[in-house]
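Re: that chain you flagged

S.,

Sorry for the slow reply, it's been a week of failed gels. I finally had a moment to sit down with the sequence you sent. For the record, here it is as I used it:
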Amino acid sequence: MNKKTTTNRRGNAVLTDASEARNTTYTKKSLDNYANLLHVGTRELNPSLYSFIDEWMGIPHRLGGTTKSGVDCSGFVGMLYRSVYKEDLPRSSRDMDAVIKEKSASKLKEGDLVFFSFGGRSIDHVGVYLHNNKFVHVSTKKGVIISDLTDSWYAKYFKNAGTPQS
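Prediction finished late last night. Pasting the structure tokens below so you have them in one place:
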């Protein structure tokens, strides 16, 4: 899969492997880039969420990591939730899955959690839903990136989604 990048305000790149984003050029300021990628107006976006994503975009995967030298999926989601939504989540993706109110993929809202099982039947990956089937997560090969739930790889392993319950 090709990945498309664009420079944001900090000089980092907005990374995506979403198939529909190939051959798209983003030339505006960062929040506008996200709005274009997600096919929504900037007013529909939570600026705190996208500022957090900007800070972490492209940070590499590291199992058990919670720093900018490397982060894993549940560490990233936990820090995002603490920073943006002022909520604490369990540390593991499996435990996060246990505290959600389940939703169908068609009912997801920005900030909901999406879960995958790449290694078998149990949950082993988590991301945060954005808009129009896009979600941010930590890919083991590409680091923090925005992907599409409907792309074949993610659709194949998608297991569950919902809103964390406090």
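What I noticed first: Confidence is low (pLDDT under 50) at residues 1-12.

Talk soon,
D.
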